[in-house]
Amino acid sequence: MSLRHGGRILVDQLRIQGVERIFCIPGESFLAALDGLHDSDIETIVCRQEGGVAMMADATARLTGRPGIAFVTRGPGATNASAGVHIAFQDSVPMILFIGQVASDQKDREAFQEVDYRQMFGPLAKWVAEIESTDRIPEYVSHAFHVASSGRPGPVVLALPEDMLSASADVADAPAATVQGNGLSLQAVQQIHEALQKSEKPLIIAGGGGWSTKAATDIARLAEQTGVPVATSFRCQDYMDNSHDHYVGDVGISINPALADHIRASDCLLVIGARLGEMTTSGYTLLSIPKPAQSLVHIYPDADELGRVYRPDMGFVAGSAEALSALAGFKGEPVTRPRQVTMDLRASYEDWQIPEETPGDLKLEQVISHLRQALPEDAIITNGAGNYAGWLHRYYRFRRYRTQLAPTSGSMGFGLPASVAAKLQFPERTVICYAGDGDFQMHCQEFGTACQYGANIVVLISNNGLYGTIRMHQEKHYPGRVSGTGLTNPDFAKWAESYGGYGETVTRDVDFPAALERARQAGKPAILNLQIDPRALATRMVLKEV
Fold first, then answer.
1. DSSP letter string over 300-346?
2. Are strands 230-233 and 247-251 parallel, antiparallel or unpaired?
3. How far from each other are the two terminal CA atoms of the chain, in whole angstroms?
4. Which one, of 238, 100, 212, lies nearest residue 153 by Cα?
5. Contact between 165 and 33 (Cβ < 8 Å)
6. Rounded to an integer, what distance in angstroms lies between the CA atom of residue 77 and that of residue 30?
7. Which of 200, 241, 342, 388 has the smallest number of Cβ neighbours within 10 A?
8. ∠ Cα 460 462 468 (to 5°)
9. pLDDT (tens digit, 0 to 9) for every residue of the chain, 546 residues total?
10. How far apart are CA 22 and CA 14, in angstroms?
11. Residue 521 in contact with residue 377, Cβ under 8 Å?
């Protein structure tokens, strides 16, 4: 042990926990932490806005399975970062947000940029705390890593008073966190297999946090062993190879009608890791509340979620990865189930992927169909929120785990920061950010972060001059009364060039493949400005008038 200031103690704890990269906007409230980072081997990525900071930390956690780390300053910095904390909470992603705080002797005076973070982040995080003593930094950081990663993963917020960080202490470091997951008993595994065996129209729905590459392999093994089809919850399509003959689609927004009908008619639903929230249940309409007509077997890492809306016939508190390992490794009686139900659902999924033509010279169904053919299996695609994402959900096939990074919380602006983090984590892989024009402009400044750090992403902007999702809802509820949904956009190709990146505008289907290849080979971050007809509002909805 030796005397160290709080910033150095904090950074030393991050190193012990295996942190390799942090994301931040610098602030005077945590200067001592920045000083601690100066001599460390932890890479510091300076972003443009705190929302982007938190979203990059979130994306890093999704890709590594370890808590992503974000540093922001007090007050406005913290409020900006709250969007990313909300995403991590709803998406069950482990993340730790460190916030600079006013000095201890100024608290409760409404000092400059002072906020009570326990109150502010209480509903948005698994745990919120303020470190008031320098010699307790190792304790708090260790606990933060345990809380963020255990049970249902999620975000932790730690406030760092300025004087606490700058003070010195002689304190021992804490060891690296070791988190033990909850598994299934042999009896539980037998019961689940028996329920699937007896069912005539079963379905497995996979989603939520706490997955791994092995879990994605295990769910395919389980499907093959039982003959049961597998669907994934909203924006968890990469949890199973979409080319697998037991994969039957995603249970999310604009679900394949045939898959929705199967869920309603199913006699057994095995739900692994998904919360069965609004998006996965089509607004709580696919299953009856509180007792579904289907026999419901629900596996989830948090007991508080089981029975929250839907009362399961069998509920098990277990992590998805641990549960799937046990289920796929079960050595019971061989399954003799007829495979026709699975074959029919798979055929319906493939029919659903046949492009439906939309208006315009450049069609998103053709853009996504080309991506599906041209991109390598390990390409990572990120997106935020908006109707434009519906084409990706319907027509792309994700073939490896963690190749889809998108917020189930429906937060706009996530795709660009996530793509920067993904390219920094895996510089050898193709990373595509797929964004709407309104969505992109929520965090468009993070394109500068990509250029600064050589994160050579390719951004595809679906540019229709609309907040398309809201316009769709207007047409459904207040037809012909357009209000507040039009956009005047910059020249996105020139935006890329202004940062030193590559920019190009595409207006026709025939030109997209070559433009994509030029962007991928540019050797710099790139933007393709895709001019989309605003009448193409959704994969199955066309505006008569704009």
1. ES-TTTTTSSS--SEEEE--HHHHHHHHHT---SPP---SHHHHHHH
2. parallel
3. 69
4. 212
5. yes
6. 12
7. 200
8. 150
9. 589 999 999 999 999 999 999 999 999 899 999 999 999 999 999 999 999 999 999 999 999 999 999 999 999 999 999 999 999 999 999 999 999 998 787 787 777 777 899 999 999 999 999 999 999 999 999 999 999 999 999 999 999 999 999 999 999 999 999 988 889 999 999 999 999 999 999 999 999 999 999 999 999 999 999 999 999 999 999 999 999 999 999 998 889 999 999 999 999 999 999 999 998 999 999 999 999 999 999 999 999 999 999 999 999 999 999 999 999 999 877 666 778 899 999 999 999 999 999 999 999 999 999 999 999 999 999 999 999 999 999 999 999 999 999 999 889 999 999 999 999 999 999 999 999 999 999 999 999 999 999 999 999 999 998 888 888 888 888 988 888 888 899 999 999 999 999 999 999 999 999 999 999 999 999 999 999 999 998 898 888 766
10. 10
11. no
Question: Would you call 16 helix, strand, or coil by DSSP?
Answer: helix
Domains present along the chain, CATH in parentheses: 4-169 (3.40.50.970), 186-351 (3.40.50.1220), 354-542 (3.40.50.970)
Distance CA(456)–CA(428), nearest Å, equals 10
Q: Are 259 and 248 in contact (CB under 8 A)?
A: yes
Strands (E), 437-535: 458-463, 502-506, 526-531
Distance CA 256, CA 143 (A): 43
Amino acid found at 491: D
The amino acid at 370: H
Q: Provide long-range contacts, Cβ within 8 A and 24+ apart, for 310-314.
A: 310/276, 313/195, 314/188, 314/191, 314/192, 314/195
User: Rounded to whole angstroms, how far apart are CA atoms 288 and 276?
Assistant: 12
| Location of structure tokens 């065996």 | 197
Contact 231, 207 (CB under 8 A): no
Q: What are phi and psi of 458, to 5 degrees?
A: -120, 120
Measured between alpha carbons, how far is 442 from 413 in angstroms, rounded to an integer?
5
Bridge partners, residue 233, by sequence: 251
The whole-model pTM stands at: 0.95
Residues 195 and 270: beta-carbon distance below 8 Å: yes
Contact call for residues 9 and 168 (beta carbons, < 8 A)? no
Query: CA angle 397-400-406, nearest 5°?
Result: 70
Strand pairing partners for 270? 204, 297
Amino acid at 499: Y
Going from the C-alpha of 89 to that of each of 32, 125, 220, 409, the distances in angstroms are 28, 6, 27, 9
Query: Using omega within 30 degrees of 0 as the cis cutoff, is the peptide bond preceding 26 cis?
Result: no
Q: Which two tokens stand for residue 423?
A: 């390219």
DSSP label at 467?
-
